[in-house]
Amino acid sequence: MISSCRSGKLMRMSGFKNFVLRGNLVELAVAVVIGTQFSNLVKQFVSSFVNPLLSLVGGTPNLGNLSLKVGKATFTYGAFLTEAITFLIAALVVYYVMVMPVSHLLHLLERNQAAATRDCPECTMSIPIAAQRCPECTAVITPGTHQPQPVATVGS
């Protein structure tokens, strides 16, 4: 009974260890840390550059000070505007600095991959252009053409 209890605890600890050391969890932790730092960077960019530019138009150097008082309630809409601008700038930076270049790179890689492969006309599996036989259906394919050659059968 004691050994089965110990092995049960070991199995639970082993499962927990596998969960914690799984690659996705580590990648997620790194993404959260980098995301937090990126958020701080964008907030500082907004307070250092965007707010002074907006103050040229609106006359207030800090949107966080903007508020509206109705009766005893105070609405700090300036803080919301600052966060909204921070979000928009972060979204623009992520799109133009990360999404567009990676998308362009993937498109180039796909184009190069497409130039290096072709589809087998028999089974439509992607094969190298120089392949003479399809590894999936074993059809004989002449390099440079897309038509398979008939496979010689025994007895013909």
Task: Describe the structure in your own words.
The structure is a single chain. The chain has 156 residues and is mostly helical. The protein folds into 2 domains: 2-119, Non-ribosomal Peptide Synthetase Peptidyl Carrier Protein, Chain A (Orthogonal Bundle); 120-156, no CATH class. 61% of the residues lie in helices and 10% in strands. The protein is built from 3 helices and 6 strands. It has helices spanning 2-20, 23-58, 77-116, and strands at 68-70, 73-75, 117-119, 126-128, 140-141, 148-149. The strands form 3 sheets. Strands 1-2 form a two-stranded antiparallel sheet. It starts with a helix and ends in a 7-residue tail after the last strand. The model is unreliable at 145-150 (pLDDT under 50).
Major β-sheet profile: 2 strands, antiparallel
Instruction: Classify the fold: give the CATH topology of the largest domain.
Output: Non-ribosomal Peptide Synthetase Peptidyl Carrier Protein, Chain A
Which consecutive residue ranges, at least 5 long each, have pLDDT under 50?
145-150
Question: DSSP helix count?
Answer: 3
**Beta-strand content estimate:** 5-15%
CATH architecture term of the largest domain: Orthogonal Bundle
Q: What is the CA–CA distance across the termini?
A: 72 Å
Tally of domains: 2
User: Strand sequence of the main sheet, in spatial order?
Assistant: 1-2
Mean pLDDT: 76
Measured on Cα atoms, how large is the radius of gyration? 31 Å
- Indicate the CATH class of the largest domain: Mainly Alpha
Helix content: 55-70%
Total strand segments: 6
Shape: elongated
Backbone structural class: mainly alpha
CATH superfamily of the largest domain: Large-conductance mechanosensitive channel, MscL, domain 1
Query: SSE string, helix = H, strand = E?
Result: HHEEHEEEE
